[in-house]
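Lab notebook page, bench 4
Experiment: in silico fold of construct C2
Operator: M.H.
Input chain length: 248 residues
Purpose: comparison with the prior construct
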Amino acid sequence: MTCEEARSLLSARMDGELDVPLRAAVDAHVKTCAACTQQSETLQSVSMAVRNGISRNTAPAHLRDNIRFALRGADYLERTQAPAQWKQWGAAAAAAVFIAALGTAPFLVNERNHRQTLAQELLSAHQRALVGREVDVVSTDRHTVKPWFNGKLPFSPPVADLAAHGFPLEGGRVDYAGGHPVAALVYRRRLHRIDVFIWPAGNSTPPARFESNGYHEISWKKNGFTFTCISDLNAAELAGFARLLQSQ
């Protein structure tokens, strides 16, 4: 191996990119060539200096949740294409046979588990927002927040002004839960944040009440929409907020 051939491979050798026979040939040449040995040592010194001089930033703790949110949104966008009609009929037929085979009781258990899972998804969305993406549109004016959702959701969520009752509106964002996009309205009660998730009423409905690790959820349906409010606010005040929202 000539010096020219060896020197063209020194960087790849240092990075471990050569196969075993080629690495052995370069090593053998470097051991017998003072000039190539010097070149190899210079490359290693430069590499070490660059590595030691680069500052490393630790990723924020909420990065995992933000990535999970982005993946959930991407999954929703990929599934917005309606499946072929024969697949829809096939899925419906399979579901019917499945339910008939299992019987009523197991079906009810599965439905309860699904509702609990949805409640947990909504809680995760609320917690993600607490440590990262809190609002997309910042405004206390419902006439600003409501039209902001136009074109971003396939529905227009109702937006209530509850500032006179001690629950000022802070803004809103688009979120995902249960495999579909939801509107998230952000309200405040002293130092507590309240998220109100809204989406068209359908089969995906969380339990009327749900609690986990100090967080409370209250859900209901009204005027063709499902509502879920979530906060670490005490249960009594959150229930009062829910009643105010239901009366609008």
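Observations: The two ends are 84 Å apart (CA to CA). Residues 7 and 39 are 8 Å apart (CA to CA).
Next step: discuss at group meeting.
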